[in-house]
Design goal:
alpha/beta; 8-stranded mixed β-sheet; about 15% strand; single chain; globular; about 325 residues; 2-enoyl-CoA Hydratase, Chain A, domain 1; 14 helices
């Protein structure tokens, strides 16, 4: 069954009318004419709705419970996935999955956040919010990929790192910071794909890469709109304003030269046609890996360094001022 977001309610009403007509008298000519009219109206509504989505509506689409997850992409795009577990220090964090796999006949390391689909799965995966051991597991796998000369592919989809007391006691901030440092110097190509929500350092810990790709309705930000509204205005009604101010949508981030490529989604979001989205992600990933694998290690690290030094650079200052 399709889950409808709050702003999609007009679509649900029309679709329910179509279903009732089809179930009660779909074979009659009068009913068929009415169904055709309703389907035309539905198509128009969808075009009007999804062609002018606000940043907050895109955020809701990025969080859609039926949106394809990391394991969905792994199952469709990769072969012979061999998952690894544990950080060799504390335990295994199911909010992050990773392992070697084959992509287009080439061995790669694939790592990503995993939220889960049902409530039970989401609880088991801690709603995609990793603990320190999740980031340490990811780093262990990245180091392994570097050892064997395998490209790294990361899928980003998290509201943020888990802020619990236990996570802080086990060094959440240090684990994230170490990933940022280590990823900046890894000697193999890294491609990151924001498939849903990229929240704060919890997302960035898998995102210091040579290329950042992003699905059309994904979001990537230093803080959630809810958190921003709470800090700046202490008013939940300001959440849509916060989403707009944060410049967190794919197009915003391309304009800011943070994201390298936006991958189009079907009308209504990735969950409407998962296979089509998977094909587009695979094609974009193939192109990016092809470009990166031709680079020497020195050029790879130099380009990565330049990419992140450009982000947030302020122009118009006196060059003599350090």
């Amino acid at each position: 069954m399709r889950d409808y977001l709050e702003f999609e309610k007009p679509l649900r009403e029309v679709e329910e009318k179509i279903e009732k007509l089809a179930a009660s008298g779909g074979g009659k000519s009068g009913a068929q004419d009415e169904i055709r009219k309703l389907r035309t109206k539905l198509a128009q509504l969808e075009h009007e709705l999804y062609s002018k989505l606000s940043p907050w509506q895109r955020t809701q689409l990025a969080r859609h419970p039926q949106r394809p997850s990391t394991l969905d992409y792994i199952g469709e795009m990769f072969r012979d996935f061999l998952e690894f577990h544990g950080d060799r220090s504390f335990g295994d964090d199911r909010a992050i999955v990773g392992g070697f796999a084959s992509f287009n006949g080439r061995s790669v390391m694939v790592i990503g956040h995993q939220k889960g689909k049902t409530l039970k799965e989401r609880m088991q995966r801690n709603f995609g919010m990793p603990n320190p051991e999740g980031y340490r597991k990811a780093l262990r796998l990245m180091k392994m990929a570097e050892k064997f000369g395998r490209p790294i592919i990361t899928f980003i989809d998290t509201p943020g790192a888990y802020p619990g007391i236990g996570a802080e006691e086990r060094g959440q901030a240090e684990a994230i910071a170490r990933n940022l440092y280590a990823m900046s110097r890894l000697t193999v190509p890294i491609v990151s794909i924001v498939i849903g929500e990229g929240g704060s350092g919890g997302a960035l810990a898998l995102g210091v890469s040579d290329r950042i790709l992003m699905l059309e309705h994904g979001v990537y930000s230093v803080i959630s709109p809810e958190g921003c509204a709470a800090i700046l205005w202490d008013d939940p009604a300001k959440v849509p304003d916060a989403a707009a101010a944060l410049k967190m949508t794919a197009q915003d981030l391309v304009d800011l030269e943070i994201v390298d490529e936006v991958i189009p989604e079907p009308l209504g979001g990735a969950h409407r046609e998962p296979r089509a989205v998977t094909d587009r992600v695979a094609k974009a990933l193939t192109n990016q890996l092809y470009q990166l694998t031709d680079l020497s290690v020195a050029d790879l690290l130099d380009q990565r360094d330049r990419k992140y030094r450009r982000i947030g650079a302020v122009t118009g200052l006196d060059p003599s001022v350090n």
